[in-house]
Amino acid sequence: MNQTNAVAQEVPYIPSLFDRTRTQTTKLVAPLLPEDMMLQSMEDASPAKWHLAHTTWFFEEFILKPFLPGYASPDDRFAFLFNSYYVTAGPRHARDRRGLVSRPDNADVRAYREHVDGAMAELIALERDNTPEILDLIELGCHHEMQHQELLVTDLLHGLSFNPLLPVYREPEPMPVTTEVPLTWSRHDGGVIEIGHDGNGFAYDCEGPRHKVYVYPFAIADRPVTNRDWITFMDAGGYSDPRHWLMEGFAVATKEGWTHPLYWWQQDDEWWTFTLRGSQPVALDAPVVHVSYYEADAFARWAGARLPTEAEHEHAFAHHPIRGNFLNDGTMRPMPGSGVWGDVWEWTASPFTPYPGFKAPEGTLGEYNGKFMVNQMVMRGGSCATAQEQMRSSYRTFFYPHQRWQMMGLRLAKNT
Amino acid sequence: MNQTNAVAQEVPYIPSLFDRTRTQTTKLVAPLLPEDMMLQSMEDASPAKWHLAHTTWFFEEFILKPFLPGYASPDDRFAFLFNSYYVTAGPRHARDRRGLVSRPDNADVRAYREHVDGAMAELIALERDNTPEILDLIELGCHHEMQHQELLVTDLLHGLSFNPLLPVYREPEPMPVTTEVPLTWSRHDGGVIEIGHDGNGFAYDCEGPRHKVYVYPFAIADRPVTNRDWITFMDAGGYSDPRHWLMEGFAVATKEGWTHPLYWWQQDDEWWTFTLRGSQPVALDAPVVHVSYYEADAFARWAGARLPTEAEHEHAFAHHPIRGNFLNDGTMRPMPGSGVWGDVWEWTASPFTPYPGFKAPEGTLGEYNGKFMVNQMVMRGGSCATAQEQMRSSYRTFFYPHQRWQMMGLRLAKNT
Amino acid sequence: MNQTNAVAQEVPYIPSLFDRTRTQTTKLVAPLLPEDMMLQSMEDASPAKWHLAHTTWFFEEFILKPFLPGYASPDDRFAFLFNSYYVTAGPRHARDRRGLVSRPDNADVRAYREHVDGAMAELIALERDNTPEILDLIELGCHHEMQHQELLVTDLLHGLSFNPLLPVYREPEPMPVTTEVPLTWSRHDGGVIEIGHDGNGFAYDCEGPRHKVYVYPFAIADRPVTNRDWITFMDAGGYSDPRHWLMEGFAVATKEGWTHPLYWWQQDDEWWTFTLRGSQPVALDAPVVHVSYYEADAFARWAGARLPTEAEHEHAFAHHPIRGNFLNDGTMRPMPGSGVWGDVWEWTASPFTPYPGFKAPEGTLGEYNGKFMVNQMVMRGGSCATAQEQMRSSYRTFFYPHQRWQMMGLRLAKNT
Amino acid sequence: MNQTNAVAQEVPYIPSLFDRTRTQTTKLVAPLLPEDMMLQSMEDASPAKWHLAHTTWFFEEFILKPFLPGYASPDDRFAFLFNSYYVTAGPRHARDRRGLVSRPDNADVRAYREHVDGAMAELIALERDNTPEILDLIELGCHHEMQHQELLVTDLLHGLSFNPLLPVYREPEPMPVTTEVPLTWSRHDGGVIEIGHDGNGFAYDCEGPRHKVYVYPFAIADRPVTNRDWITFMDAGGYSDPRHWLMEGFAVATKEGWTHPLYWWQQDDEWWTFTLRGSQPVALDAPVVHVSYYEADAFARWAGARLPTEAEHEHAFAHHPIRGNFLNDGTMRPMPGSGVWGDVWEWTASPFTPYPGFKAPEGTLGEYNGKFMVNQMVMRGGSCATAQEQMRSSYRTFFYPHQRWQMMGLRLAKNT
User: Looking at the complex, does the CB of residue D108 fall below 8 Å from at least one CB of chain C?
Assistant: First the structure.
């Protein structure tokens, strides 16, 4: 969460951020039926309705209850239903049963949002009382909600994928015809570098402190691995040759029967995939997506390269402006011609561990990131499901190495 | 399914049965939100929406497609989505993923019902072409739908029970104040008796052939075991003393942590239970419900009695008129003062096996009952979730000994 | 256990039975190494060493402790280690960890046997004090041990089968060359018959009371189903066609990948099997063995027949003398030319339920059979791993429908 | 494996190392019965017999087969049975079934060892032909065997712990009476440091290359956490307060019911533990052992400290001579008064990842470490089950964060 201060002159920024973020969430669920909003296809994923309610609860729990005098929740039981994992905020509903909560229904949850939005407007209007602490919390709540926007659409894709009718979330649109983009590399010198957030502007606790790291000279690819590259790997028997794989990865791949990325199937000798814009032929020059860390690592080894560390990734791209194909662009799937930011998250070789000097904040929000720092791998770069405003070059997202349902791809690196 | 013939004079009965059955299903889901209709809380249970669609598919698949010239389904893919387990009717959607089908949505499924109802009306109107075979199939379809009405409400209860808010399906209504009904017994002579359906009127295949069985003299209780009885068992340590239990039953009870019937909890020294009419104190003189065969068997042994066989049950009650608390009565839970029929299904000591001479019919409908004849136990008597019209003294329902979510109770028997 | 009385004139029989039984067990383990005696390949199976100790504990617990004044166990902790499932005899070691008890070692267990055998000799020598109760218990202990002899060799076969070297228990011996035996049938009239043990001589509690059953006319095959028959079923696609199968059976077969009986594999177009006499080509005219109830039932349906009920089986063969290929014959596998008794147990269509009037004896030995009376199926006929002396026409053994590791085969029946 | 060269003058060292190592293994199993050598209590652990055979196979496969002309294995099937995880060395027996291989028996495996030792002696005697490559492989084989010595004794402890009789491996010996050792800290400056093996002498591939790391100033405790410390944590409710725990760790601890280290129990208000020298009261001033990474991490957070990184650990102790309580000392359990090396492995905060510039060697031995580089945590320091000769300050061992059966403890660190 927010380690930095939303300084005085940012005041006008926060209300606008709040409005934009809340509106964007509402826009994302506009095409959904009440039935769609119930889908929970695995414990890792949550129903869209739950995302709507949980992001609302976040503002209620951490801002309205402590700071808006006289605030009353429309239903005190929502605190139990819509807390995700904050143990210090009290008990919570079992994660794998979120899909079994039919009531509050869709209308109730929208009313809950409106109630909280109204109270937030009231609080924000009390300008003179808005301490930096409150503004920081609002900013954090917005970034939190942007993270859930990403989960909302990727969880939805996963949920819809179990429907044999493969429903379409957003109207299909053909992919542009493209030609192969050759793989080129950028070299970087080594030495003591600095990574991590410097404290100016918003960042999550785990992005700091900014700190020194010793890196060795390396080269990093100028584009992510594409579907075309991936099909070459598949055709070369990449999925069935244990020499390329981490032992644990090969065991998972064998047990799960993986022979291609998630959501792919073969039809008349062509590879197809299920996307938020319906079923489509795999676009050869778009970045490969929905591959696990295990697959990404195997691909890199097969390709005679490796995954970059997060320090390398951050160092290489810290000065590239954050432009690319993000959630706001509405493509809802990675597009050909991808550069650095957006389109797909890129698995790094770095486990998610605390930076030197990291200390989780006191209190409930100290649970935000710190308690996940084991067995997960860092990804960098943002995706077509990420809100652009959410991205920074220091941004670290993290997932388990077997997970595939996020917009997960990769970029190669090598020693020089 | 139907082994018997719906003879000529029954013709007016069938259209009326069809209308009543279809209307009753619609009435049952009237209080439900689209979200409620998505709930699937375990593989054994199905969403209400699925029940609506599957019972409709049954008419389409077995009657309209073969017998109504020119009939077209609104969506050919429904045959895949809404087939339950008829392998000879083609492939089908995985049972444990029925809750992940958000589309067709509620409105689509209702339109599907209307489409099929219209076509059925058309077919029924062609009176002169309605062979006994067709009439038999319609009757079977109605009985099939009545079975699914029972599942619909019990699956719904199970689904709602995972919601910490414990939503109410039908407006609560206090239980009548009652006093204990003493347990009395009726004795029956032994000898060669006959059980099973005699072929007059509708029955499922597994209810026949009518056949001779040798039974020994026995006594059977005049009322089911009540909650008051059950609490005595609980207070006597019944759940924790392995001597009363089948070994497998005790292992399941231990693993699942059973110390009371499903949906019970203790609150301020009183037992409460979750019902389709909301949370209520346990009604002491109502039949106990939501107990597994393992628990029923342990109770009977603890009580110095045993469960009746299905032959004993049928023999004892064959001449009692089918009157009692059924689905049509709308209590939605077993009521005090229960006699023979309705309120709760009664576990018998009989595994579900074929009667002598049983032969599953040829074709797809031969899968209706025969392929379940292993590891399940027969229950008799009907319940408050059973359509009264569906009941006969020869009716056999069957469930696994660990299952509890149906309206399952018991009645004692003993040797004399 | 023993419901009957070992009458006075049987006194000399019991000591001899005791000696023969104990010696036979020792003979069975003679070819085994200490390492072999540790094998526990699944929870259902126990190490040979455990069988040696448990059968010894049975005499100690139920006879020596109550009836031999001054008897002391060599180690009081053995009661915990070697009790199988008698909850009223005290706590016991977890069944699935029997293979983790390296000490007491083989030598210790043999010393334990000798200690108990010595004490038993002492007790038996006190002739005048040996009440019928004691003699009955000794007889029961011997029959109990014979049951464990059968488990010992079948558990051993299972344990050895996980060793890729496929070790040989007893020296290989080629199967006789045979020709197909045509399938013939014997017809039986129906009516009220009697089955069950009549109380003369030893029998287990679950074999009685002798009672009347109404059976319909039937025919039963004169020989079990052979490997030749089974291969025809396999070649006809029997394992992959769900129409022949119970739904639950097909699910198990699919999940486990069953395409042939346990211990079979194909090698150069020939079927081979692993036996206690090493790997051998499948003998075409020997009874098929190591098939589950699910498979047996599917075979019977495919063959246009059914499995007999246990009443039919007992009625048909009650007057056939108990002669056949038993454990004593040492073939250690079913042999061609099998008639009624021995070679393979035959799955019946009857779940294991109590006979009318059955009441488990008071006390610990009441746990012997009664607490298993759910979800298991009865087999009749005895096998090549069964001690001949143990068999009676009323003998009921019972296993779960998915189990295959016993010497399990089948015989067909049909209505006439 | 060996990246370095065993240079010419080391020649006499290798034969001696080989003899010592092989003899030590034999000595370790001397107190074991054939039954003990069969124990496999979980997939992670292997039978002692398997360790004996696998370490022998290693010499056969990687040295004798390629380098000793005319060498023949006593049994070609051993390559299948005793390969552990080298996929490029061919198929192998399932890891979780090693305990089901009763034959080859103990005597066969000892004969196999003698056969290979004889052939190795022959090869070693051919001094002039022993290229550095061969000497390096022998050295690697010895270090490999030392690793398996550690597994052998810890696997044995685990296996024996499932025996309710809690057998004693080595004669019990009382722990010395001790008083609490206060916790003191050593401070270290930060900056660019170097860690990793420098290539002189033996090391595994994963210990290099030696490389620069930037570390911040830190302090590290002068002794490991003791049982006394741990009991304070337990008494303070450390196991039940989620605020101290990684979320995943708390979930595992809850599911497994952890409330104390592995092998502990409470008896008359005193903590006892099962060791290779039998059951003993927990020695308060000995290092705590058999705690998972999750527990170690929670303890550190509760204590207001953290675990050191592996760079910090190596940097802090690189110049401490490798002296301490090792396998050779025969205590078989951690002893009070522990300093830096030996007694217990110390969990670090570092996931096991490749060092910059790491490249797994070509060929089968490239599988030695590299394919495990995910989801495991590094431990440093060696234990009372580690051969002293095996240790270096650069030595990295690695285990999953939930594992407890190795001699796993911890040491605290903090920022300064």
Answer: no
Interface of B with A in 17-36 (CB under 8 A): 33-36
- List, for residues B170-222, the tens digit of each pLDDT value: 999 888 888 999 999 999 999 999 999 999 999 999 999 999 999 999 999 99
**What is the structure's pLDDT at B2?**
41
Checking if the pLDDT of B230 tops 50, the result is yes
- Write the residue in B211, B213, B246 that is nearest to C371 by C-beta: B246
For the segment A284-331, what is each residue's pLDDT rounded down to a tens digit? Answer: 999 999 999 999 999 999 999 999 999 999 999 999 999 999 999 999
CB contact D165 to C (< 8 Å): yes
- Decide if D247 and A371 are in contact by the 8 Å CB cutoff: yes
What is the predicted ipTM? 0.95
Helices (H), A304-385: 310-317
The answer on C290 and C152 residing in a single domain is no
- Partner B contacted by A286 (CB < 8 A): no
**Ramachandran sector of residue C287 (left: φ over 0; alpha: ψ -120 to 50; beta: rest):** beta
Q: Are residues B37 and B85 in the same domain?
A: yes
In A, minimum Cα distance to B98 occurs at A163
The residue whose two tokens read 């080595």 is: D170
CA distance A341 to A324: 5
Look-up: residue for tokens 């997060």?
A310
Predicted pLDDT at A6:
44
> C1: pLDDT confidence band, cut at 50, 70 and 90?
very low
Query: How big is chain A, counted in residues?
Result: 416
Token pair listed for D375? 């989801």
Among chain C residues, the shortest Cα distance to D47 is held by C100
DSSP calls for A228-268:
HHHHHHHHTTGGG-GGGS-HHHHHHHHHHT-SS-TTEEEET
Contact flag C353-B353 (C-beta cutoff 8 Å) = no
Domain count, chain B: 2
The pLDDT tens digits of the residues spanning B322-342 come to: 999 999 999 999 999 888 999
Torsion of Cα atoms, C35 then C37 then C41 then C42, to 10°: -150
Q: Which of D368, D84, D407 is nearest to D202 (CA)?
A: D368
pLDDT greater than 60 at residue C31: yes
- Looking at the domain assignment, is residue A319 inside a domain? yes
Contacting D residues, span 222-261, partner chain A, CB-CB under 8 Å:
242-243, 245-249
Is B76 an interface residue toward A (CB < 8 Å)? no
Q: Which pLDDT score, from 0 to 100, does residue D3 have?
A: 42
Token pair in block for residue B244: 């009363």
pLDDT of residue B89: 84
Residue B166 phi/psi, 5-degree rounding, is: 45, 70
The nearest CA of chain B is from the CA of A163 a distance in Å of 5
| pTM as predicted | 0.95
Does D355 lie in the same domain as D269? Answer: yes
Task: Return the beta strands (E) in D189-255 as ranges.
Answer: 191-195, 211-215, 218-221
Inter-chain CB pairs, B–C, below 8 Å: 72
Please state, in angstroms and rounded to a whole number, the distance separating the CA atoms of residues C345 and C287.
10
CA atoms within 13 A on the CB side of A321: 1
Q: Which residues of B touch A165 (CB under 8 A)?
A: 77, 81, 101, 103-104
Alpha carbon of residue A211 to chain centroid: 24
Residue C18 located in a structural domain: yes
- With CB atoms and an 8 Å threshold, state whether B35 touches A102: yes
Please write the tens of the pLDDT for every residue from D33-72. 999 999 999 999 999 999 999 999 999 999 999 999 999 9
Query: Do both D145 and D215 map to the same domain?
Result: no
Residues of B in contact with A103 (CB under 8 A): 33, 35-36, 163, 165, 167
How confident is residue A374, by pLDDT bands cut at 50, 70 and 90? very high
Q: Are residues D154 and D200 in the same domain?
A: no
Measured distance CA(C265)–CA(A156) in Å, rounded: 46
Nearest to C248 among B247, B294, B374 (CB): B374
